[in-house]
Amino acid sequence: MKCYKAKDYKEMGRKAANIISAQIIMKPDCVLGLATGATPIGIYEQLIEWYRKSDLDFSEVITVNLDEYRGLPRSNEQSYYYFMRKNLFDHINILPENTHIPNGMEEDSEKACRDYSNIIRQIGGVDLQLLGLGHNGHIGFNEPDDAFEKEVHCVNLTESTIMANARYFSSQEEVPTKAYTMGIKTIMQARKIVVVVSGADKADILKEAFFGPVTPHIPASILQMHNDVIIVADEAAIEKVSDLI
User: Fold this and answer.
1) Which domain holds residue 95?
2) Catalytic annotation present for 136
3) Number of domains forming the structure of the chain
4) N or C end of the chain: which has fewer CB within 10 A?
5) Is 138 a catalytic residue?
6) Is 68 a catalytic residue?
7) CATH code at position 63
């Protein structure tokens, strides 16, 4: 495991974007596993900037997203399909058919999960997976549990995750309570994993996840077992482990 400290959120985004751009340059047809939420937006902004300067070419890149809310149409501004188009895909030369996100409108959960697992297998797996870190240690929508979920699955979101997501919706009643997400095994099969963490409110969980015991009660802790994990965190988030790295 490698840890890179950034001065602030902006530098964190630039450092993480550097790792992703290096992957694209080394393997133009690479498969990128992408994440949503506030943390990776700065990364996507940097990648767009480099694309506009002709430093990056996404024409052969394939992407698979970690998750999608169940029951939200792609036209909904809070769907992750909409998020990815707004914050990255509409601004680069990636082919729409090369972007993959779980089908949140598929009511048959088993079919939705099976179909997405098949897509990931057919494209040869993920070369680089980008992850954020939830306040309770979740990665993707893999919530704390008594066992690690393995494959793509439908998850009941915890109350804390629902509350954290409520700020994006006009009322709490609109916040989805279920989501399709890559499982822990799917994530761990990525050849390289980049975890981005920002803010003092993530300092405790960063320490627990990467310098504490491996336990399904902190899903991100399993990443300690991966042979190629890079953590990119700003000073506030990494403060409590600065003496350990």
Assistant:
1) 2-241
2) yes
3) 1
4) C
5) yes
6) no
7) 3.40.50.1360
